[in-house]
Amino acid sequence: MPLETPARIVRALVSRGYNAEREAVTLIAGSDDPGLTLAQVVESTPDDALRITAVHVREVLASAPVSDPSGSETASDDEKTSSAHRKISGHDTDSHPPVSPATSPASPDVPESTSPSETGGSWSGRNPDFSLRSLAIANDMTGESTGTGEYDDFVKVFRDRYEKLSKMLRGRVNHRPAKAISNMSGGEEAELIGLVNDVRSTKSGHWLIELEDTTGTFPCLVMKDRDTADAVNELLMDECIAVQGTLSSDAGILFVDSLHFPDVPRGHRPNTADRHVQAALISDVHVGSQEFMEDAWNEFANWLHTEEAEHVEYLLIAGDMVEGVGVYPNQDKELTIIDIYEQYEAFSEHLKQVPGDLDIVMIPGNHDAVRLAEPQPGFDENLRDIMSAHDPRIVSNPAMVNLEGVNILMYHGVSLDEVIAELPAEKASYDEPHKAMYQLLKKRHVAPQFGGHTRLAPEEQDYLVMEEVPDIFHTGHVHKLGWGKYHNVLAVNSGCWQSQTDFQKSVNINPDSGYAPIVDLDTLSMTVRKFS
Ligand code: D5M
Ligand code: FE
Ligand code: ZN
């Protein structure tokens, strides 16, 4: 059997329905005759064994040394390295439960189920040519945290926010500093870019917006009967906007004619992958909670081993891997695992059910064991060790992940609660979480409002600004499924794997549990699979 590359070993093992540790694959690939070693390993593995371990491969190599290496090809060093960054796992392909109903909605309505489909037993695994894949992370601040929470840090981070966001608005207005505007004469036209410092309604129902830039503040008045008044409903504190208008006769106030958000350009042309490949976007697994939906998770993991999922080569998890401890009052009553490390160990076991030849990226959420304030660094070494089986890419919240040219902004989504609370229902609601995401895209910031529900940690720079327009924006947190396009950016909020908690019942939140949105990276179209 020609087994000249680790990729073929991966394929051969998957086709035999075996899990294997990454190191085990590396050892087989590095042996004198990988084909023979593989056969010996498979033969000596008990039928009920779930995983081939490195220890087992070593035993085989020690007890039955390959005697005739002539004629066999061995993997190059490069290939060994590529096998070393992933391991494989597989399930007995005959033992899959029926595949869950698939849904392929064309619009962001709650998908309807279609009948289950069975997969054949002859599938030999997803494309083993890992060289076709590419995964790069930008904007990961793990290990880069410098903030100490001092006043100066806050000044720095807000200056950086202003710098980055005002740059996006400069093409649209010819702005002057607030200080310079306060020296102008009455009746002159003026344009200003600033962070929203205050929004108040006046006695007569108009809106007074105070904008702040690096030189000072300036009051701007939006008349209630103007078109611009609608935009005032969308304002959040500390976001950056531009206004254009005319100064009052005493030059003490700017009457606003137009208001601009940094926004995503309307003509944004998203990047796409060069081949048909898919990513599963999930979040909010909440292992350790009584409401964690283990059966739905198992079905999802099993489905990933089937031919229907053959193009799914990436799995992105946008936070809340575990339920955590002490996240909300009285949460301990709803825990099945009370120790945070044991929760991650259990999560890791559930993740091992997912095929090992998927590339996994994870960011933390508000239930995870990292600081709550955003940006949140990726998990520490202890937690990485616990979750190491799949060699996932563990990065900060938020992070920009590039998969085969497609930029996916992953953000857990705590600020969505605030956007939904502050904005009118038609602009953002729990039933249409993607619309709340549109607001964040429009503001080009994942968590504009400071000092409210979302905690922010001041760093040297504002990592929460969307400097680059993503092609896909992936969030979770609100436990609702919703997706749609905003100026050609696909916004996906990915639901959860936790059924309704007592708290959610008390406030009438009906979670969308057990769904996996699957995105085609070559077309940015979406399919949703239901597993509950
Ligand atoms: O939160 C899931 C969703 O439910 C999110 O919209 C916040 C809301 N939630 C859940 N529990 C609480 C409590 N106890 N107080 C306030 N809001 C809550 P997640 O954090 O992902 O579990
Ligand atoms: Fe959650
Ligand atoms: Zn959350």
List cofactors, ions and other ligands.
2'-deoxyadenosine-5'-monophosphate, fe (iii) ion, zinc ion
Indicate the percent of residues in helices.
10-25%
Spans of at least 5 consecutive residues whose pLDDT stays below 50 are 66-120
How many strands appear in the DSSP assignment? 20
Q: What is the assembly state of the chains in this entry?
A: single chain
Mean pLDDT: 86
Content of β-strand: 15-25%
Backbone shape: elongated
Give the end-to-end Cα distance, rounded to a whole number of Å: 42 Å
> Major beta sheet, specifics?
7 strands, mixed
Q: How many alpha or pi helices?
A: 14
What's the arrangement of strands in the largest beta sheet? Answer: 3-20-19-10-11-12-13
Question: How large is the radius of gyration?
Answer: 26 Å
**What structural class do the secondary elements suggest?**
alpha/beta
What does this structure look like?
With 532 residues, this protein is of the alpha/beta class. It is built from 14 helices and 20 strands. The protein has helices spanning 6-15, 22-30, 34-44, 54-63, 77-84, 151-169, 178-181, 228-232, 294-304, 340-352, 381-386, 414-422, 433-443, 502-506; strands at residues 19-20, 51-52, 102-103, 135-138, 189-201, 207-213, 216-222, 240-247, 254-260, 278-282, 312-318, 359-363, 393-394, 399-403, 406-410, 472-475, 481-486, 489-494, 515-520, 526-530. The strands form 4 sheets. It has a 7-stranded mixed sheet with strand order 3-20-19-10-11-12-13, with no helix packed on it. A 6-stranded mixed sheet has the order 4-14-15-16-18-17, with helices on one face. Helix 2 runs parallel beside helix 4 (54-63) and helix 2 (22-30) runs antiparallel to helix 5. The relative contact order is 0.14. The protein binds 2'-deoxyadenosine-5'-monophosphate (D5M), fe (iii) ion and zinc ion. Residues 284, 320, 365, 367, 477, 479, 496 line the site of fe (iii) ion. The site of zinc ion has 6 residues, from loops.
